[in-house]
Every structure is written in structure tokens, then in C-alpha cells.
Amino acid sequence: MTSSDSKIELLIVDDDPLIADALGYFLGRDYAVSTASTRSEAIELLRGGKAAPALALIDLGLPPTPHRPDEGFALIADILAHAPETRIVVLSGQSDELNARHARALGATEFVAKPADPEYLRKLIRRVLSFRDTSPEMDDGLIGDSAPLQKLRAQLRQFARSPFPVLIEGESGSGKELAAAALHRLSERAAKPYLALNCAAISPSLVEATLFGHSKGAFTGASGPRTGYFEDASDGTLFLDEIGELPLDLQPKLLRVLENGEFQRIGETQARHSAARIVTATNRDLKKEVREGRFRADLYHRLSVFTIAIPPLRDLGDDRIRLLEHFRSVYAAQANLPRFWLTTEATERLLAYRFPGNVRELRNIAIRLTTKFAGEEVGIKELEAELDPGNETHAIGVPPAPTLMAGDELVSIALNDIQDHRDFNLDATLRRWEEAYIEAAQQVAHGNMSQAARLLGINRTTLYNRIDTLARESAASVKANAGLSGVKQSGRN
Cβ(54)–Cβ(129) under 8 Å? Predict the structure, then answer.
């Protein structure tokens, strides 16, 4: 999405054409604007083979469920998978506090309720884009000395000296790209090329040409020969992010390069050779992908000669505070603003939070706090507004849920229930408990099914399936009772 006049690229995703057109017209004076009305259209634009947008302005209520935020939440994850450096601002009419907090946890930098003043949006976008991502000025890019980081630091230094492939695993937003760059920076190839390609960001039909290059006329639009990433990487390092997205029919060709260094440009028979060191990353369980036939077992074993697991932010203890202080210093300096600071209670609250969005979420929290509370003290109330309550351990001072009761307490409850009800039925009792928890989760989430599913510790599809199952069982029970009542009435007659 690179424009000819060098304007910064901006993507607008909204299913209301009037809003999309109005925003495009207003912002088009300053930015090169692309628009999409659905999640799939937005993904196609991101996969168009051009530069990723600097910022995406998206609605939550998108087809096919425009009255629910699910598609918008999924789009946030899609954008960050395809273009991790893209900043996201949510502009939505589904603006209750839970939706806003969850969108930010997923990776959105800001959340704006509709209708929004266009001039305010312009200033907000300019401010969001003014914050630049910077890596710590260290060879390994790591901040902190917790046990998981010490293990990661040791692995990076050990594996950097080897020519063999490394597979980096970790949750979205945990810093897999930093680890890949550190492997190159710490290696003997540091002065040689380092290229990174996000396999999720390219249309499947373009992946082969992007990796291996093509000859003139190899396919429609191939007006001249072009090198691919393997040639351009030469004897440096080639980082393939989101390797789990690599099309199954292309995997044998990657395997061949790993085995003997050979590949061919599309449209050529001449064998070419690559001496690049391959580093890959994924947030998927590739072993599961292999078992289910979506990823080749032989390729997986070739890629995972060495494996590095990036720890999630929630496991880093006090290093989370050190990271926050790093981001706070960086972004306060960029904005020429005094730094905020946390109260003791707010610090404890931050340490109790699970950070579903990992380092990316912490970075965005630092940006928002820098903007809102420059030079001020941030207490627990101010911090709480930045956190997603559906993705954490129980809050400080809040007792654990009944499901965490000791076994003897549960047995006591069950004993009383059985003794008090001669017609006790285990299936009916479990169904009532399940219905009650689902109803409670929906109330807490204000009807947001994705949020309710997270509160229950299950995925959204499972929640819908359970609701459907409970409805069928309830209907069957009513029907059975009605039939039984009819039999009794008949018997009396």
C-alpha cells in the first residue's frame, strides 16, 4: 500500500459506505487511504504484496455480524498477524467499556466511540503515529533478569553461533521478531543481510514468487525477472515469520532448500543455491498442525533443529515493571512529555494482570498513560481502565470463584443437595449450573459472546455449541414432561 506521492498509508475498515467515504475524503488530504467494508476485504488488501499501512482505523461491528463486535476483534488479530507494526485505532458504535478494554488488550492502540469529531480523529492519528517503536540498545534486545529471560538469553547466545535452523515459538505479541533479530545480531553473519518475511501477510498465490523469484513472463504480470528472498538473503539470515501459514503445496520446496540449499525461480529450470541461515517463528502448535495434516512432519523436523520458546509476559515477574519503565522513558522522550509514575497499589495491580496481548499490550498501555497522565501519578483506578478484566487472575481483594473451593466443601454442598431432593438428577443439576454460569458470564460481558467465552475459559465456538445443546436438552425435557403429564392424565381418566 505504498502511494506514489509518499503519503503515509492508512486503512479504513467500516461497512457503512457513508462513514468510510467521509473519513476517506477528510483524511485523504494527509494520508493515502484504502478502504474495506469487511474483514476478508481488509485481509486481501493486507496481502496485496505492497507495504503495510502505518495505521488501520476499524469498526468492530462488521459483516456478517454487524451488531456484535466479534468480527472486529478478529480483525485486530488478523491485522497484527499480517502487519505487526501497524497501529490500530478502533472507531466503533459498540463502545461499552468492556469492548474498549478488550480491543486494547488485543492490540488496539486507541478506542474512539462513534460519532467522532473528524478533527479529533486527525489529531489522534497524528499523535499515535508520532510514537515510534524502538528496540532496547542491547545485543539480545532483552530487558530484565527473571529466570525465563535468563534462559532465553542463554539460548539466543548459544544458538546464534550455529548455522542450523531455529524455530521460535510463542504467543502473539511476545517478541518473537526481536528474538530472530537477536540471533542474527549475535551471530557471525551480523554484517551480512538480514531479511524478514511474514508468511501470513502474502497472498498464497504470491508466496512462491516472493521466496524464490521468477523469470520474465513466468505468469501474468511478470514483466521482468525478479529475485526472491532466498537470493537476496545471500549468506545472511532469512527470518520467516508465521511459518504455520505457509501453503501445504509449497512446503516441499522449502524443505528442498533446507536439505541441500537448492531452489528454482518460477519459470526457470536452472538450479540456484542459497546459503542463508533460516529462522522461523509461529504462534501455532506446529506439532498439532502436523498431526492434523496441515503441516509436513519432515519440514517441521528440519525447521526445529533448535527450538526457542518465548515466555509470555505474565511469566516475567518484576521484569514487567522494568519493561513498562523502558517504554515510559522512550515514549515520554519521543513526545517531549514528563514521565508518569505508578502508585504502589497500581504497581501491584499491574503485577496481578495476565497481559493477554503480551509485550505489545504493555507497550500500548505505556503510550496511553504517557498521553493521558504526563508528569502525573497513576493510581489503580486510572490503570484499571486500561486493562481487560476478562483475561486475568482474580483482582486484588476479590475472593476466588466458587469453582476454586476445596474438595470437601464441594462434597458438603453436593451431600446437602442430594439429601434435600428425593428426585435428584445429576444431569439436570449440572445443566442448571452450566446455564447459570453462561448467563452470568453474558451479563458480565454485556452480551459480548467472545468476552463471555473468555470469562468461562472456553472458546467462542464451544460456547455457542453449549448454548445450542442446552437449548435442545431443555426443549426435550419440556416435551418429555408434557408427555409424561399426558400419560398421567390419561391414566386418571
Answer: yes
Q: What is the residue-wise DSSP string for 254-316?
A: HHHHHHHSEE--BT----EE--PEEEEEESS-HHHHHHTTSS-HHHHHHHTSEEEEPPPGGGS
Query: Residue 202 forms beta bridges with which residues?
Result: 48
Strands (DSSP E) contained in 187-248 are: 194-198, 237-241
List domains and CATH numbers for the chain: 8-130 (3.40.50.2300), 147-311 (3.40.50.300), 315-384 (1.10.8.60), 405-492 (1.10.10.60)
Contacts of 203 (CB under 8 A, 6+ apart): 44, 47, 48, 49
pTM equals 0.73
Q: How far apart are CA 266 and CA 106, in angstroms?
A: 38
Residues 308 and 280: their CA atoms lie apart, in Å, by 10
Confidence of residue 365 (pLDDT cuts 50, 70, 90): very high
**pLDDT (tens digit per residue) in 422-440:** 567 787 788 888 888 888 8
- Nearest residue to 295 via CA among 310, 306, 308, 280: 280
Residue 195 is classified by DSSP as: E
Write down the number of H helices and E strands in the chain.
20, 14
Burial status of residue 382 (CB atoms within 10 A of its CB: 0-12, 13-18, 19 or more): middle
Measuring CA to CA, which residue among 255, 43, 185, 123 is closest to residue 196?
Answer: 185
270 dihedral zone (left: phi>0; alpha: psi -120 to 50; beta): beta
Closest to 364 in 3D by CA, of 46, 142, 169, 100: 100
Helix axes 97-106, 449-456, angle to 10 degrees: 70
The amino acid occupying position 267 is: G
Confidence of residue 405 (pLDDT cuts 50, 70, 90): very low
Q: Which of 16, 98, 6, 102 is nearest to 57 (CA)?
A: 16
